Structures are given as C-alpha cells and as structure tokens.
C-alpha cells in the first residue's frame, strides 16, 4: 500500500511538472508573439513618420499654391472690373487690399492648423515609438517575418520574395530621411545644381583645349560598323512590342501579323532558320532573350532584352552589390581581380549562364570557326556584361573569342573590375549623350541627394537634414567604353573614355532620359561616318 501511495505521489508530481513546463512554454510563446506584434507596430511607426511628414509637406505646398491662385484670381477680377468702369480705381485698390488681408489671415490660420496637426501627429508617433521601445520591442520584425515566409517558398516565389525584401531594405535606406519641409523648395536647388553641372562641363572642356598633352582615341571604321550592327541585335531583343512604335524607321514596315521573329529578321537580316531560340522571359532574374547564328560574319549571338516588365524593374532595383571575381583563377598570366557587381544583374547573368550553356555550346560545336557574342541594351546590357565575364572564365567560350557589346549600359561593376585588362579584352560598352543610366547607381543617387540638400541649405531654403555618407561602393559600366555624341568632346562623334573619370557621378542635363531609348542609340550609331579617318589619337 505504501509503495502504491508513493507511486501515485510520484505520478502526480510528474504530471504537475509537465503541466508547469507546458504552461511556461505557452507563456513564453505568448510573450514572443506579443513582442513580435509590438515590433511590427514599431516598423509601422518607422514607415509612418516619413509618410506623415511627406503628406503634411504636400498639404502645405498645396495650401500655398491654392492661396497664391486665390490672390491672383481676386486681383485679376478687381482689375478687370476697374478696367471696364464697373468700379473706380481707388475703390478697387481698397477692396483688393481688404481681400488680401482676409485671404492672408485665412492662409495663416490654415497653415497654423496644419502645422499644429503635423506637430501633434509626429509627437504622438514618437511617443508611441518610445513606449514600444521601453517594452523591449525591436524594429525589423516585419522583415524578419517576411524573410521567414520567403525561406519556405520555392522557385520564382522565393526569388520574388527575396527581391521584394531587398527593395524594402533599399527604400528604407534611401528614403528613411526627409530632406525638406516643402518638396517644391528643392526644385530651385535642383536647377542650381544643373547650372553648376553645365558650368563644370564648360570648365572641363576649356582645360582640355588648353592642354597640349591631352589626346583622345576614336574607333576604327570596322569598330563603328560592328557597334552599329550589334546594336540592331540588342534592339531586336525588344521584339514587336518594344520596337513596334518606331518600326517604319528601321524595318520594312509593320503589318498586323508581324511577330517577334519578323522583328529579329528585319532588324538583323537573319533568316528565320538562323534563330535558335526566343525566350520572352520566365520570371525574375530571367530576362527575355534570343540566340541566333550570323553566318555572314561567323558569330553565335546571344541578345538580351532591356526593361519591359515588372520583374525587370525589380531586377533593376535589386541594386545592392555582391562579391564578384572578374578573372578565372586558371589564368596564370593575369592577376585575379576581386570586386563588386550589381546583385540583380549578376543573379540574372548566373541564371542565363546555366540555362543557355548547352544550346550555345552546341551552336559553337556545329560552327567551329564562329566566335561568341553577347549583346544587350539597358538592363540587357548590364546582364550581357556580367554574362560575358562569367562565360569568359570557361575555356570553350574563351577559345571562341567571346565578346560582349553593352549599349546604354547601367552601372554594373566596381572600379577595379570595370577597367581590368580581362574586362577590357572581353567587353565593349557604348554610352550615348548624357544618358542617365550609365551614371546611375545606389552610391551616385545618394550623392545626388546630398548635393541637392546641401545646395538647398546654402540657398537658405527649408531643409530638415542632409544624408549620411554612403557606404556603398560606386559602380560603373565596363570594358572599353565609347562615348557617342558626347557634349564633352565635340566635334568628335565618338571617343573612348574612362568611365571612372567621366561618368563617376550623376549630372543633370536636359537629354539625360531621352538619350537612353534603344532607337536613339540606333539612330546615333547609324549616322556615324564609317569612312572617316579614324582609329587614331587626336588632340581634342
């Protein structure tokens, strides 16, 4: 009996311990969920503060514009009445001043109310954040939960989720500060910066003309013909949708039953049987492309399309950097160059490198004397650059004199890789006019923001803060870089430049957007005089 009682007591004690452990576990889980929820609330506040600031700033700007228009409307009405003799001039002046006083008072009251509302709202958000912080809630819970959810996904869903996480982090980094109480007040600063860029350009040109040692290099006629030809392949990758609106300028004329194959044929002169494959793009990090064989010039050509889809835009915006090696380790005669590359373009290039390896090797095997060429425009140019550098590591491709032609190339590699001998041997880039994209990277964008903010402060315009120094490394277009119709090197239509020297920051010029379009590059390249004396170093 006593043993039975002892056993019963032991069982009760064990059950009690298990219940206590289970209760502790439930309490711990409840605590974790509560802290997660509070952390998500802090993330919401972090997003809410700049959003509220921007909203009140926009409201302030709208109020200013509205009352300014009211002043003009009332003044114009009174002047018209005076001109028509409906009211004498003195009374019109008195009425105008009275109305102005009433409108100004209403303006002040409205602005004061908005200011008080903004102050109260921001103070409430700040107080809420302080309280949540005191509980131990940590910011970043939303991204942590999203990352956990993405990690459980597969394939395209996982890639898309990771890209969105990167985009959220980027927006937090770039947009987590507020430059001005009135965004419109920054416009004069931007105009001042554009004027400064014009002045700096004139000074650079003056110094070059005064220099007795400065020389520039222009391409050979054969190089110009090659640049023009391969741009047609890069443009053809856009297909009917991308090139249809300007088709009559480059092809045989668009007809209702035309398809992408027709665009490729008409722009490149290929036969349909020369097109190995066409891929419209299968998701993020998988840009549209086609592979074809040019029997006339003995080339196997991979052409990659630029930005035309939401997935492409995400690839552009995944602009943080990843480690990249430009030279294979088995190159004994050349130093290995370690550096950074644009994450979105690199991932896309890696996907294409695997996907296209077999069909391209087969095409080269069937055409033993042909070389391998990779071309692209815009996003396609960035991917083409990195795909070329990836494939140039592989002996079978390196033996075929692989070369990449990158048009309107975005900033895709760091300084050390951009002008490394290996890169210059395998990649040629073309920049037209003041194309913004060939200067745009995360680092140069942050630099532009700081410049505008600093000029705004210098001009005594309203500004809350300047941005911190950026820790992102600047990226550049790669290889041998030709600058087409540059306003820096007139009258020369095309010259070779060092992008690290000439394209190291964003400059504000009137044509910086329109020059990026593929047909703009086509027009400019086909206007080149390929019979002129070229390929020499000439004084500026």
UniProtKB/TrEMBL annotation:
Primary location class: membrane
GO cellular component: plasma membrane
Keywords, sorted A to Z: Calcium, Cell membrane, Hydrolase, Lipid degradation, Lipid metabolism, Membrane, Metal-binding, Phosphoprotein, Transmembrane, Transmembrane helix
Cofactor: Ca(2+)
GO biological process, one term: lipid catabolic process
GO molecular function, one term: lipase activity
Name of protein: sn-1-specific diacylglycerol lipase
């Amino acid at each position: 009996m006593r043993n039975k009682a002892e056993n019963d007591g032991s069982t009760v004690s064990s059950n009690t311990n298990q219940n206590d452990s289970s209760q502790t576990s439930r309490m711990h889980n409840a605590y974790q969920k509560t802290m997660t929820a509070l952390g998500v609330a802090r993330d919401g506040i972090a997003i809410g503060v700049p959003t509220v600031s921007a909203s009140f700033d926009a409201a302030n700007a709208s109020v200013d514009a509205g009352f300014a228009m009211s002043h003009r409307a009332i003044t114009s009405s009174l002047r018209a009445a005076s001109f028509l003799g409906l009211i004498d001039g003195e009374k019109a002046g008195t009425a105008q001043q009275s109305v102005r006083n009433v409108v100004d008072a209403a303006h002040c009251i409205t602005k004061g109310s908005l200011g008080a509302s903004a102050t109260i709202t921001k103070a409430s958000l700040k107080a809420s954040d302080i309280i949540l912080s005191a509980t131990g809630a940590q910011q970043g819970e939303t991204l942590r939960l999203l990352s956990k959810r993405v990690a459980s996904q597969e394939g395209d869903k996982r890639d898309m989720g990771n890209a969105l996480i990167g985009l959220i982090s980027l927006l937090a980094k770039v947009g987590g500060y507020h430059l001005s109480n009135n965004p419109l007040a920054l416009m004069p600063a931007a105009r001042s910066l554009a004027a400064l860029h014009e002045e700096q350009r004139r000074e650079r040109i003056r110094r070059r003309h005064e220099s007795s040692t400065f020389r520039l290099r222009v391409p050979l006629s054969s190089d110009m013909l090659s640049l023009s030809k391969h741009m047609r392949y890069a443009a053809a990758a856009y297909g009917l949708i991308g090139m249809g609106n300007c088709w009559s300028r480059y092809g045989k004329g668009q007809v209702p039953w035309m398809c992408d194959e027709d665009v490729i044929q008409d722009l490149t002169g290929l036969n349909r049987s020369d097109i190995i494959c066409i891929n419209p793009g299968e998701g993020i990090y998988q840009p549209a492309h086609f592979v074809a064989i040019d029997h006339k010039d003995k080339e196997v050509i991979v052409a990659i399309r630029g930005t035309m889809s939401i997935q492409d835009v995400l690839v552009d915006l995944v602009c943080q950097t990843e480690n990249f090696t430009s030279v294979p380790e088995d190159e004994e005669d050349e130093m290995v160059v370690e550096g950074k590359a644009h994450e979105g373009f690199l991932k896309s290039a890696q996907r294409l490198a695997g996907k296209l390896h077999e069909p391209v090797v087969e095409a080269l095997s069937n055409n033993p004397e042909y070389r391998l060429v990779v071309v692209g425009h815009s996003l396609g140019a960035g991917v083409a650059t990195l795909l070329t550098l990836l494939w140039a590591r592989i002996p079978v491709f390196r033996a075929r004199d692989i070369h990449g032609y990158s048009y309107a190339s975005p900033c895709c590699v760091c300084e050390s890789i951009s002008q490394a001998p290996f890169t210059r041997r395998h990649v040629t880039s073309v920049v037209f006019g003041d194309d913004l994209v060939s200067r745009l990277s995360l680092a140069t964008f942050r630099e532009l923001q700081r410049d505008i903010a600093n000029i705004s402060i210098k001009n005594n315009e309203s500004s809350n803060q300047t941005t911190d120094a950026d820790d992102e490394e600047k990226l550049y277009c790669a290889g041998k870089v030709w600058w087409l119709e540059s306003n820096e090197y007139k009258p020369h239509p095309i010259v070779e430049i060092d992008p690290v020297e000439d394209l190291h920051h964003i400059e504000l010029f009137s044509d910086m957007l329109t020059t990026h379009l593929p047909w703009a590059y086509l027009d400019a390249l086909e206007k080149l005089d390929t019979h002129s004396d070229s390929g020499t170093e000439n004084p500026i």
